[in-house]
Design a protein that fits this description.
The protein has 347 residues and is of the alpha/beta class. The protein is built from twelve helices and eleven strands. The chain is globular, with a radius of gyration of 20 Å.
Length: 347
Amino acid sequence: MVIPHSRPTLGDEEATAVLEIIRSGHVSQGEKVREFEDALAGFIGVRGAVAVNSGTSALQLGLMAMGIRSGDDVLLPSFVCSAPLNAVYLAGARPCLCDIEPESFNISPESVKDNMTAGAKAVIVPHMFGNPADLERIEEPGIPLVEDCAHSVGALYGNRRTGSMGRFSILSFYANKMLACGEGGAILSDDGDILDFARDRRDYDEKADYKVRYNCKMTDIQAALGLVQLKRLPDMIRRRKMIAARYDEAFADMHLCPPAGEFDHVYYRYVLRTGKDPAGIIACMREKGIMCSKPVFKPLHRYLEMRSGFRNTDEAYSNALSIPVYPSLTEEERERVIKAVRECMGA
């Protein structure tokens, strides 16, 4: 049997919840979405949440709600998927790319300072692979932090959840994320104006005035999935941590340096530094029936053809390898992964 790189953890309770929505006859945005929003806000510890169709839409609407417009700069790391870059452009702003810290894969506070501009209006901080970034070191006076928690929902930063400390934060509920709804996202904030803006702009119909609005609602089907997943999240995080602890033990003699950090890592991804191009290892693992991947398909600065200032990002891209770590990974599968990594690495 092939072990996939990612696999959602879904069961009978999720199936029952979705079936109830289908039988109700109301499958679009409705009461279940509002229930999910309230549950998310309570779990993260913020005033409110607005559910939408994707994390990208959440980030775009949040930036627009802050008043970011053409000519404004938004800082973000290069070592991340293209979704945050898309959201910056969709909001009309100009991206300012930053390097990462080599130990954690998170945005570098020093690079943020080096790339700060007079027109900077926000810093997007993804908590990469479930490893919380050091927000206190990143914070710049007068420049709002935006937390991208697509990888880190449920993680703690001190005694607070990631997602509760920025001007606003966003979540993603894509099929391989910590909470799997198939698709979907959410904006979370203590700022009522941001929440009101996002709630208004996600839906264009039956408005008293005309503004450019969008059609980026979440459905009650997705929200029903999300409510079950949110209830199960603490157990799923415990399972991720157990698998990661076994990997730490199994690879301790190989000096593969998994991501370090002083905060609560929830292991959306378990990333190894192989010290070489991982393509051969990925091919070797595939031959053994185990799917692995580079954790970031391509850094943003390479899309934008920027050639300097990203040493740590280029190093991570050239040798980082992501191996299966999801909660439904069985003990037998986990041991197969360990054996295959050691063999493919020549250990």
